[in-house]
Amino acid sequence: MTTHAAVVGAGLIGRAWAIVFARAGLPVCLFDVDAQALAKARGAIRRSLDDLVEFGLVEDPEGVMSRIRVEADLERALAGADYLQECGPEDVEAKCRIYAQIESVVSPTTILASSTSGIAASRFTGHLRYPERCLVAHPVNPPYLIPLVEVVPTPATTDAVVERTMQLMAAIDQIPILVRREVQGFILNRLQGALLNEALRLFRDGYVSAADLDKTVKHGLGLRWSFMGPLETIDLNAPAGVIDYGRRYGPLYRDIDLQRDAADPWAPETLARLDAERRDELPGEGLAERQAWRDRRLMALMAHQHATRND
Amino acid sequence: MTTHAAVVGAGLIGRAWAIVFARAGLPVCLFDVDAQALAKARGAIRRSLDDLVEFGLVEDPEGVMSRIRVEADLERALAGADYLQECGPEDVEAKCRIYAQIESVVSPTTILASSTSGIAASRFTGHLRYPERCLVAHPVNPPYLIPLVEVVPTPATTDAVVERTMQLMAAIDQIPILVRREVQGFILNRLQGALLNEALRLFRDGYVSAADLDKTVKHGLGLRWSFMGPLETIDLNAPAGVIDYGRRYGPLYRDIDLQRDAADPWAPETLARLDAERRDELPGEGLAERQAWRDRRLMALMAHQHATRND
């Protein structure tokens, strides 16, 4: 039985989700309260598909477009949907209102998944009649290029809903991970934050420039991390695996852990100095062009991975 | 004027450095006190070169081999060397002895760079007659695939020595970064350690499996980090750059920073559980094969980057 997907919110993330569902062969209906956003959606999606075609990442853009419907009426948009991906504003009160509206028109068995990058779903679904079908499915932007999705149930979410969501994500070529309990920032942003906090401290204390910190990752750490995780990396970096590695390097990493001082690494003075170095490297007017460069590099990388993947 | 390089220590790292120098056209002499290690060195280097040729990363393996000399006599090995890369054991006393021997036969102006991954060079060069030409040039393994080199002067190192080392690394197609003052773990391992410490805490506390932590990086964070650093990443992830990003996400990352508990993330119980999950994923007898897979993936990635690099 084909899953019917609905996407609420036709911004950047909502449009990207529509591509992900439709690329995998699912019919998807895209809704937004903002008629202008909705009017622009198909054109913007078409342009993203053209980029994907150029890099060999989509073969049948017309087929993908044919499976995407836009709909300005919430009830009609959600009729027959088995799975709903909410992409509203990152604001608890706004989400509470949106979920109440959604629940008033949607089937009680439709899974309601939020794209939120930071708010635990229990905070905006606890007031619903059927909160057991709610959870987070947090994508990385843009999900049609970066496959990771963090699936985060609330204490009320049933196992069946978690399992169906994990299966659906795998079926549409995303890579779901299960975050077993709600935790601030989920997993991806906590890992990113830990590295950024250390990077900013080293920068603040004058050990290294911003450009050299970036080089350390892009010409060093990040190469292996683009095809194997940090735990597999250390497992392969000591003759007898992770326990052996922990014996060799654990004390060093523990020292680093204990050396962190109490000051906020995100202090305004640090950010001002970082901004000065970044703007030397890339003037503000170059940001948009560099974002386009990033997206092309990412597409080229994914095309490379599709050609070489064997895990 | 051609730089003449010498490499002391014919283990994995020493042999890899010999490839890096010779691939860039420099004559290099490889020394080891262990005659057996030296006898095996040329064959092992030849096999590494064959792998590189297969992935289009070396074009003239005979030329590379012709520039590599092995030499069992330290004085003859170092005669005429402008730059020496020390690849001895990771042990302060052993390095102290090695540096005393080196200084007794080498020109006073030869740069002495250590491959140490964790020991500040001031700890094993302070006793020398000419400590001002000593510093760390820490590679990532293997340096012929991963270009980052951390250049770390001691308080005694002259600016001219730092500059010549940075220039030499750039000339041989490595990417040097300058670590302005000695710091435990340098930069790369401090960043890696910060991420690992957070990953192990999330794993220990049952939020996520080891496999899902790895997926979070390899199918999420690590993709962009393979071609842009973490600071450039956040600079492009908010409409007005890093200060804007800090305003939006700094408080989240600060909370994560403050949530770390006092317990050692590398506790034996945590590593034992991690080992159990890793061995389910990859039995111990599969480690060597997986290491060979990793090296092939890395070569394929570097071939991809050489074809697409435009920064």
Automatic annotation (TrEMBL), chains A, B:
Principal EC category: oxidoreductase
Gene Ontology MF: a single term: NAD+ binding
Catalytic activity, EC: 1.1.1.35
Domain 3-hydroxyacyl-CoA dehydrogenase NAD binding as annotated: residue spans: 5-181
NCBIfam families: PRK06129.1
Family of this protein: Belongs to the 3-hydroxyacyl-CoA dehydrogenase family.
Official protein name in the record: 3-hydroxyacyl-CoA dehydrogenase
Species name: Billgrantia endophytica
Lineage: Bacteria, Pseudomonadati, Pseudomonadota, Gammaproteobacteria, Oceanospirillales
